[in-house]
Amino acid sequence: MTFTTSASGAARLVARRAVGQSLEAPFYTSEEFFALDIEAVFAKHWLFVAAEAELPEPGDYVTVALGPYSVIVVRDDDDRVRAFHNVCRHRGARLLHEERGSVGNIVCGYHQWTYGVDGALRHAPSQPPGLDPACFGLRTVRVRTVGGLVFICLAEEPPADFDEVAARIEPYLAPHRLAGAKVAAQTDLVEHGNWKLTMENNRECYHCGGHPELQGCYFPTYGYEEQDITPVLRPAYERFLRAEAEAHRTYASLGLPYATIEELDTRATGFRIQREPLDLAGESFTPDGTAASRRLLADFPTARLGRLALHTQPNAWFHFMADHAVTFAAIPLGADRTLVRTTWLVHADAVEGVDYDLDTMTKVWKATNDQDAVLVARAQQGVSSPAYLPGPYAPAEEQVEQFVHWYVARLRAHLEGQL
């Protein structure tokens, strides 16, 4: 069943959202809410769309589809990352049709209007002499690189707090030297669920019993508050505390920032960042916790650095280890479909089959992604039932509540701005 929602109905649903509970069905199922999400969230906020490593050379590009928008992200001849609307300035034809590639110039296949990778109009056949090329360059999209990660914002007036957020997270990212990394692997997985269900699922480990590969990398007490540690879990918790103390000493000796910063629902550009130990060998997300690549991302004296975890609203999460990094982007495709793009990054000189085994590197997150896709699809089926009613979040789902609170606040601000 598909629920429909008018604009006034959407405003009522936003206004009556109960704190601490999941959203009402139309938020997840209606085409009207999907259009509102694109307009109020994805067209107005900073979005992670790629790693710089996906654009290693001038002319390399990726395209990003966000509802009715299509954006070209490209490295120009001066080695700068730029972003443009994927729309010809002649009669509006789509310019680039592939998800990624490399170009010398951007040429419209309709009437051969030609643009440089700086967006400037270079050639417009059979136009009158008075045509001013400077007036017909590609329309720009705001783009920022932060520690090797590429963010775009479609809004004419993007959230003003991004500079502050970038300044706070860049010192955490810089030691991993992501801008000089290369892509080891990338997968695209379509989850048959609303993008908010994808993000809610990612923001909690209440369900992590369904992720045996991932759960092995975390301490058995991951997600527990100290007061909730049972006698059975106490030995594992003491082991975690020892690992945490050791990790903090290592981070301090290497000058790696590790304090948790959590501002997920208190600003327009919500984020959370934390460096913490992993279980097993403590080096990486692999079946035994050992480093997946012998060639580390940077000149770290040890691979036992656990993980640096970053989450940015509305659509991304990241894990950075000593040996490799993994980025995740959730891109809404429809009210009930979401693209999850996962990218594994390694040192530019790391050689597959010599420095790393790709199956070992990707095993944990490929399995986890597949398991999550099943869970999200089941959630979508459930919220689509007339019998569905919002349910309460558990204490372990605090970050889910923070995501939903952030989301509802952004919708409310957008709707109030239209009055």
TrEMBL record:
Classification via InterPro entries: Rieske_2Fe-2S (IPR017941), Rieske_2Fe-2S_sf (IPR036922), Ring_hydroxy_dOase_asu_C_dom (IPR015879), Rng_hydr_dOase-A (IPR001663)
Positions of transmembrane segments: none
Pfam families registered for this protein in UniProt: Rieske, Ring_hydroxyl_A
Keywords on record: 2Fe-2S, Dioxygenase, Iron, Iron-sulfur, Metal-binding, Oxidoreductase
Domain Rieske: 47-152
Record keyword Disulfide bond present: no
Required cofactor(s): Fe cation
GO molecular function: 2 iron, 2 sulfur cluster binding; dioxygenase activity; iron ion binding; monooxygenase activity; oxidoreductase activity, acting on paired donors, with incorporation or reduction of molecular oxygen
Record keyword Kinase present: no
PANTHER family assigned to the protein according to its UniProt record, in alphabetical order: CHOLINE MONOOXYGENASE, CHLOROPLASTIC
Protein name in UniProt: Aromatic ring-hydroxylating dioxygenase subunit alpha
Native source species: Streptomyces boncukensis
